Amino acid sequence: MRHCAGRGWRKWTSTAILGHPHPYSPLGLPHDEIEPDPSVPSDRGARPTLDEVLELRADRMRTVHDLIAALTDDMLDGETAPVPPPGYPPAGSYPVRRCLRAIVNEEWLHRLYAERDLAVLEQRR
Q1: What is the torsional sign of CA 38, 88, 79, 100?
Q2: I want to staple 48 with a disulfide (CB 3.0 to 4.6 A). Which of 6, 27, 44, 81 is the partner?
């Protein structure tokens, strides 16, 4: 199983809010609908270990935790620095609140998919 390393999450959090120009892990894969972007690693042959995937996940969780812990009302009501092209989200500035909503929604949906898939696997046992 490949880990997508939260491409959308990385772009919303690391690039849009935190301003990191190269947010992606070489172990992740972009979703199939994204336009090819040479700055986005896309090694379909990579086979990360479970420990590598869990460390990426732990890093993601730490980053979001630290971001939310440091938020002020002014920051939450503010705009991001411009996101450079190409890629997702499209180039431009975004309300920080919108970025955080995208992050939380993505996390929630991934949890729902995991619970659904685990329930199917348990039924098969």
Answers
A1: negative
A2: 27
Q: Please state, as a whole number, how many other Cβ atoms lie within 10 Å of the Cβ of residue 112.
A: 10
Half-sphere exposure of 81 (CA within 13 A, CB side): 10
Closest to 94 (Cα-Cα) out of 83, 86, 106 = 83
Q: How far is CA 73 from CA 69, 70, 76, 81, in A?
A: 12, 10, 5, 17
For 96, residues 6+ apart whose C-beta sits below 8 A from its C-beta are 17, 71, 75, 76, 77, 78, 79, 80
Q: Which of 35, 44, 50 is nearest to 88 (CA)?
A: 35
- pLDDT tens-digit profile of 3-18? 344 456 677 888 889 8
The model's pTM is 0.74
| Burial letters 61-89, b for 16+ CB under 10 A, else e | eebbeebeeeeeeeeeeeebeebeeebbb
* pLDDT of 79 strictly over 80: yes
Cα distance between residue 4 and residue 110, in whole Å: 11
